[in-house]
Design goal:
Helices cover 51% and strands 12% of the residues.
Length: 191
């Protein structure tokens, strides 16, 4: 909306427009599985949480290498309020946000864009077949390539060894992209 205040953008494995429909086309069981997950998230967002979901609300679970003295803090940080916020985020990713995304799509002109794409195959749902994984991975990458067209100065970076959660799995790739963007913008400003 306010491109005058945007110098450049770094996108980290971003959602794509109508991703729910894309997912359903590739994995027909996805809508039912996602609806079940939304129900779980809704219960997790309840204050107090029903006993039936106790232990099922960690999203993500504590990292295996997290020191034992930090595990309780990690778990407490994912209270009902955390679940309520993530639930609202998931609810917003449906058609309404996709319609807004399409309507607001504008050229960035020569403003730089760096898009980080997960390097690993997209294994999202239990029982997903290898063919579905390959199709979903290819479709996600294609949608990201299409996003690059909004900038005359865009770059797609594959983050090898990472799934969708690049900030958690390969934080150095995010830091590098932001640093590269800042360096480029500062150099441009000096010219």
């Amino acid at each position: 909306r306010n491109m005058n205040s945007v110098a450049g953008i770094v996108l980290v494995d971003p959602s794509v427009e109508y991703q729910d429909k894309l997912l359903a086309e590739i994995i027909p069981t996805a809508p039912a599985m996602l609806a079940s997950d939304m129900t779980r998230r809704d219960f997790c967002a309840s204050d107090p949480r029903p006993p039936s979901v106790a232990g099922k609300c960690l999203d993500p679970p504590p990292p295996a290498d997290l020191p034992k003295e930090s595990v309780d803090w990690f778990v407490e940080a994912q209270g009902w309020w955390y679940s309520a916020h993530t639930l609202r985020e998931y609810q917003a990713m449906g058609t309404t946000s996709s319609d807004a995304l399409v309507a607001e799509k504008k050229s960035m002109g020569a403003r730089p864009l760096i898009l980080l794409n997960a390097g690993n195959k997209m294994q999202l749902l239990p029982g997903q077949t290898e063919a579905q994984t390959d199709a979903l991975t290819a479709a996600w990458l294609q949608k990201h390539r299409e996003m690059l067209s909004i900038s005359e100065k865009s770059e797609l970076r594959m983050v090898e060894g990472s799934g969708h959660f690049i900030p958690r799995e390969k934080p150095d790739a995010v830091v590098r992209a932001v640093n590269d963007m800042v360096t480029e913008l500062r150099a441009k400003k000096r010219r």
